[in-house]
Structure formats: C-alpha cells, structure tokens
Amino acid sequence: MKAFPAALAVSLLLASCAGSEAVSAKTVSFFCPNGTILRATFDTDNDRMWLRVNDRDYDLPRLISASGARYGDERTVFWNKGREAMLERQDGPSYIGCLAES
C-alpha cells in the first residue's frame, strides 16, 4: 500500500517535467529566397537552439546580440529579429532574407 503514494508522486513529478519542457521550446520555420527552409527550435530556458538545414543539424548556444537573437559557434552563426533570419556557415552556403511563416 505504501508503494502507491510513492508511484503517484513519481508520476506527478514526471508529468510536470514533461509539461515544462514543452513550454520552453518553440519551433519556427524560416523560408529563404532560394527555397531552403531553416527549422529552428529555440530553448529559451537553456539559451540554446537546434537548427536543421537540408538534413544537417546544429546545436548552437545563445550569443550576445545588440539586436535580435543570435546563436552560434566558431563555424556557424544564426541571427533572427522578428520574422527575419539569416545563417552564416564556414562549411556551406549562407542564407539571408529568410522569413518565418506567418
């Protein structure tokens, strides 16, 4: 009988954790002029983003930005402000003028 309250407590804890993760992450698709789609998932709780571009994935930390949001590392920089985004990469083409879906 004592196992039931413990199992209930663990279930409630796991349910609350799952709910908080869903709130902190938001996915946005940015459509570039050449037809490329940048799929960005922003995790504001952890100051990170995950970016998918043409079957390639990037895990980027948030960087200091004077305006908008900027994420990157030594080879890749993603920046967005409002609906607009751009991606600069050393290992592939760059994309500018990409717009979020409305």
Strand content: over 45%
Strand order of the largest sheet: 1-2-3-4-5-6-7-8
Helical amount: 10-25%
SSE pattern, N- to C-terminal = HEEEEEEEE
CATH fold type:
Lipocalin
Mean pLDDT: 83
Report how far apart the termini are: 53 Å
Tally the structural domains. 1
CATH architecture assignment: Beta Barrel
Low-confidence stretches: 1-15
Assigned CATH class: Mainly Beta
* Major sheet: 8 strands, antiparallel, barrel
- Could you tell me the radius of gyration in angstroms? 18 Å
Assigned CATH superfamily: C-type lysozyme inhibitor
Shape: globular
| Strand runs, count | 8
Number of helices: 1
Q: Structural class, from helix and strand content?
A: alpha+beta
Report on this model:
- With 102 residues, the protein is of the alpha+beta class.
- 22% of the residues lie in helices and 49% in strands.
- It has one helix at 3-24, and strands at 25-31, 37-43, 48-53, 56-63, 69-72, 76-81, 84-89, 95-100.
- It has an 8-stranded antiparallel beta barrel.
- The longest helix has 22 residues, at 3-24.
- It is globular, with a radius of gyration of 18 Å.
- Mean pLDDT is 83; it is low at 1-15.
List the helices and strands and how they pair.
Elements: H1 3-24, E1 25-31, E2 37-43, E3 48-53, E4 56-63, E5 69-72, E6 76-81, E7 84-89, E8 95-100
Antiparallel strand pairs: 1-2, 1-8, 2-3, 3-4, 4-5, 5-6, 6-7, 7-8
Highlighted features:
disordered N terminus, Lipocalin, globular, lipoprotein, alpha+beta, eight-stranded antiparallel beta barrel, palmitate, 22% helix, 49% strand, membrane, 102 residues
